[in-house]
């Protein structure tokens, strides 16, 4: 039996734990610049619209606990120690790295709760982790850069897409437009040959093929409020166009996200749903992965594969 210990650095965006933390959180996102009062109030209003607080932190805790249980139930003799690091709220990624060093962790696997790689998303988490490694003197971390084509992840998304399509009659299903959505990023990534847009299309095509549904497309959502252009088309614009074309039934599959949080519970369930009703579209959203066993087994497979590289 091996007595090998591997740290698992699970990284995510983070979210305020209460409304009092929203300004601090928003300021951190803006790299120390406090948001204008109207922008701050808009974000607070969005949190209030979904109940006053996002469930993301609780879901992430459940994901990490469940992932650790699966990893350590494998019987391979490796002990996996779980650590949570967040991008915009404590415990930050660097805090998690410091804790690993204090616990004597010498090797680790780092991953982000997001399937698709971008130099403006996943790479930033890795930079933060490496900053911690440099500052605290370890550990050696193998990074998962993307898992958008991991078979168990695709299977989990296929099941959720089929469930969403079941809300329509068999006669209606061929005409249901499935829109795969992900968080928009600044359009300048296109000039950087960033793989993000291609990976979005690759996993969308793979899920649609698995589900046997050919009527699909991609759209972007939750663009930042900055002067520069962001990737489009935006999901709201696409819904308007579909209504004009006579489409009555739509499924949104926000597969760029892995949990119920603000970008899903507000941007889709409230904002997009209100627009859909206004333009006469029946809109169904696929269920999120959250801490479901099928998703966590996909992540466990990815973590073990990277741990084996040591």
UniProtKB/TrEMBL annotation:
Keywords: Cytoplasm, Heme biosynthesis, Iron, Lyase, Metal-binding, Porphyrin biosynthesis
Protein's UniProt keywords contain Lipid metabolism: no
A Gene Ontology cellular-component term: cytoplasm
Protein's UniProt keywords contain Iron: yes
Reactions this protein catalyses: Fe-coproporphyrin III + 2 H(+) = coproporphyrin III + Fe(2+)
Cellular localization per UniProt: Cytoplasm
CDD domains registered for this protein in UniProt: Ferrochelatase_C, Ferrochelatase_N
Major place of residence: cytoplasm
Binding site for Fe(2+): 183, 263
Biological process annotations from GO: heme biosynthetic process
EC number in record: 4.99.1.9
Annotated pathway: Porphyrin-containing compound metabolism; protoheme biosynthesis
GO MF annotation terms: ferrochelatase activity; metal ion binding
InterPro entries referenced in this protein's UniProt entry, alphabetically: Ferrochelatase, Ferrochelatase_AS, Ferrochelatase_C, Ferrochelatase_N
Summary of the function given for this chain in its UniProt record: Involved in coproporphyrin-dependent heme b biosynthesis. Catalyzes the insertion of ferrous iron into coproporphyrin III to form Fe-coproporphyrin III.
Family: Belongs to the ferrochelatase family.
Record protein name field: Coproporphyrin III ferrochelatase
Source species of the chain: Effusibacillus lacus
């Amino acid at each position: 039996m091996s007595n090998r210990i591997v740290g698992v650095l699970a990284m995510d965006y983070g979210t305020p734990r209460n409304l009092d933390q929203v300004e601090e959180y928003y300021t951190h996102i803006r790299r120390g610049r406090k948001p204008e009062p109207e922008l701050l109030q808009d974000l607070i209003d969005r949190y209030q619209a979904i109940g006053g607080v996002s469930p993301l932190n609780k879901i992430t805790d459940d994901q990490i606990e469940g992932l650790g249980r699966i990893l350590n139930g494998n019987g391979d003799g490796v002990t996996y120690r779980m650590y949570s690091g967040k991008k915009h709220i404590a415990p930050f990624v660097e805090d998690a790295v410091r804790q690993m060093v204090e616990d004597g962790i010498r090797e680790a696997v780092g991953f982000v709760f997001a399937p698709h790689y971008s130099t403006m998303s996943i790479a930033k988490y890795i930079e933060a982790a490496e900053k911690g490694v440099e500052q605290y003197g370890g550990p050696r971390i193998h990074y998962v850069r993307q898992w958008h084509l991991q078979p168990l992840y695709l299977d989990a998304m296929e099941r959720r897409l089929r469930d969403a399509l079941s809300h329509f009659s068999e006669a209606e299903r061929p005409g249901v437009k499935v829109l795969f959505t992900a968080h928009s990023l600044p359009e300048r990534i296109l000039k950087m040959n960033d793989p993000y847009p291609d990976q979005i299309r690759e996993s969308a095509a793979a899920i649609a093929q698995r589900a046997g549904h050919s009527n699909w497309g991609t759209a972007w959502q939750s663009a930042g409020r900055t002067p520069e252009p962001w990737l489009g088309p935006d999901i709201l614009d696409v819904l308007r166009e579909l209504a004009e074309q006579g489409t009555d039934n739509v499924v949104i599959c926000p597969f760029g996200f892995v949990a119920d949080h603000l970008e899903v519970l507000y941007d889709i369930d409230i904002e997009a749903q209100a627009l859909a009703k206004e333009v006469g579209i029946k809109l169904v959203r696929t269920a999120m992965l959250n801490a479901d066993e099928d998703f966590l087994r996909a992540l466990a497979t990815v973590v073990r594969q990277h741990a084996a590289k040591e």
